[in-house]
Write a structure and sequence with these properties.
The structure holds two protein chains of two kinds.
Chain A: H1 3-9, H2 11-45, H3 50-62, H4 65-72, H5 82-107, H6 111-119, H7 124-154, H8 167-176, H9 179-207
Helix pairs in contact in A: 1-9, 2-5, 2-7, 2-9, 3-5, 4-5, 5-7, 6-7, 7-9, 8-9
Chain B: E1 8-19, E2 23-34, E3 38-42, H1 49-56, E4 64-69, E5 72-73, H2 79-84, E6 86-89, H3 101-105, H4 107-111, H5 116-129, H6 146-158, E7 164-168, H7 176-193, E8 196-201, H8 204-210, E9 213-218, E10 221-226, H9 228-233, H10 237-245, H11 252-256
Parallel strand pairs in B: 3-8, 3-9, 6-7, 7-8
Antiparallel strand pairs in B: 1-2, 1-4, 4-5, 9-10
Helix pairs in contact in B: 5-6
The chains are: A mainly alpha, B alpha/beta.
Chain lengths: 210, 258
């Protein structure tokens, strides 16, 4: 039986694990957007906070994913369910690209444009919402794209703590020393990564400042 | 020379400005801008002209001395209110690239919460005033010529009808023909609107053409303040040097004499 026959034969399970995978990635990326963008805006405005916040996000990024799942296990409420745990870990990993790209995007807006806005009497929040964020949007979306693609890969490891997703097949295949089963997890995961990359890449180009 | 207080729009009182407390960009400048005049700040690059301009709308804060706008120190003004009554035109880069022409021009009315219909009406009025075709309203800055962009910049600064206008080398990046055209239109416009204008340039011809008075700034110091005629025939060393540098000695000075 080759991998395609295997996937066809188990299509219901493949679909379920793919959806689980997508769910883990989508929720964690959305949470990272909700936390990371405001943090990026914050450090663009308060340079003092730049080092501690970017530094922390950097350090989280260096923790091996399996170890991070382990560290989070004793956390109350989170530790009770494997998918919560996986989502938290994936969110933490996705923070760095989001914070950094939001910061870089805002700092990259032409200073002359910002000064013109300020000179015409725009308040800080008007400048942020009407000038800086719209002009930084494509860079921010590029950060979401990086975060989503990384999450698709990392989420396969979530299966190790029982959070489901396409990692199930990969770990199962590893245990069975069966390449077909590994590929049945790896191919849809690669497909999801490409899908995320292409769709967010399209959005990024559409939002590029004229 | 003294002016009655109600005739003064902007007054610099012994103003100095230091960058980060070290390099002195402006030294002890005192000058008044009268209502309805076009005061040209003339000087070479890095002389402190733009610094002077940015002190007026409080983009920069004076290190010493104070600047009074309508009799009140810029330190005491609500900075947002101050800036909204001062139009600001900078070289073409200052237009918002993600706003079309109409939104760029209507920016100050929009942040002042005017009703949409009134903003639209005002934008149309202004486009006509500065000689922009109505069809350009939906274009983006990158789709315009340099001259058109500059007109948008002027229209945007005039949008909320501010009594004071700051212009920082507004025509500097234009080709000579377009520049001459815009200078003529500026004169016609200024005759009608009678704004108080502070105009920064390094171009002596532009200063002589547009200025009611010309202030020569050199290394952060105000070195001369004259009407264009006085300026052209001044015997002061620095003024004469500036005039000579433009080759006026040979041609215009002679031609200007009866």
């Amino acid at each position: 039986m080759n991998v395609w026959q295997f996937m066809l034969h188990h299509h219901a399970e493949v679909a379920e694990l793919t959806l689980q995978h997508l769910w883990l990635v989508a929720v964690s990326t959305a949470l990272a957007v909700l936390i990371g963008i405001p943090l990026g805006i914050l450090i663009a405005r308060r340079p003092v906070l730049n080092k501690p916040i970017l530094g922390s996000a950097n350090i989280i990024q260096t923790i091996p994913s399996l170890a991070l799942f382990g560290f989070l296990l004793p956390a109350p409420w989170i530790g009770e369910r494997a998918d919560r745990l996986a989502i938290l870990a994936l969110t933490l990993y996705a923070l760095l690209p989001l914070i950094r790209n939001t910061y870089t995007g805002i700092k990259g807006v032409d200073p002359a444009v910002v000064e013109a806005g300020r000179g015409m009497g725009m308040t800080d929040s008007q400048l942020l919402w009407q000038v800086q964020l719209p002009l930084a949007l494509s860079v921010i979306v590029a950060g979401v794209r990086v975060a989503a693609v990384i999450s698709v890969g990392l989420a396969t490891i979530a299966a190790a703590i029982g959070a489901g997703g396409l990692g199930e097949y990969i770990f199962r295949g590893l245990a069975m020393v069966n390449n077909q089963v590994i590929l049945a997890g790896a191919i849809p995961a690669a497909g999801l990564a490409i899908l995320a990359d292409v769709s967010l890449g399209w959005l990024e180009r559409r939002l590029s400042p004229r | 020379m003294t002016d009655p207080a109600d005739n003064v729009a902007v007054e610099f009182r012994n103003v100095s400005y230091h960058l980060n407390g070290t390099r002195e960009l402006l030294h002890n400048v005192s000058i008044t801008v009268r209502r309805g005049e076009t005061l040209v700040l003339l000087g070479r690059s890095g002389s402190g002209k733009t610094t002077t301009l940015k002190l007026i709308n409080h983009l920069l804060e004076p290190s010493e001395g104070e600047i009074l706008v309508n009799g009140q120190s810029t330190r005491e003004w609500d900075v947002i209110r101050l800036r909204r009554m001062i139009g600001y035109v900078i070289q073409e880069v200052g237009l918002f690239p993600h706003f079309n022409v109409a939104r760029n021009i209507g920016l100050v009315p929009q942040i002042e919460d005017w009703p949409v219909s009134r903003i639209q009406q005002r934008v149309e009025e202004l486009m006509q005033l500065v000689g922009l075709d109505r069809q350009l309203a939906s274009r983006y800055p990158r789709e315009l010529s340099g001259g058109q962009r500059q007109r948008v910049g002027v229209a945007r600064a005039l949008a909320a009808d501010p009594p004071i206008l700051l212009m920082d080398e507004p025509f500097g990046a234009l080709d000579p023909i377009t520049r001459a055209e815009l200078q003529r239109e500026f004169l016609a416009l200024q005759k009608r609107l009678q704004k108080t204008v502070v105009f920064v340039t390094h171009d002596l011809r532009e200063a002589l053409l547009l200025g009611t008075r010309i202030a020569l700034i050199e290394s952060g110091r105000l070195v001369a303040l004259h009407t264009p005629e006085e300026f052209l025939y001044s015997k002061e060393a620095m003024v004469a040097a500036y005039v000579d540098a433009f080759g006026f000695e040979s041609d215009l000075r002679k031609r200007g004499q009866p």
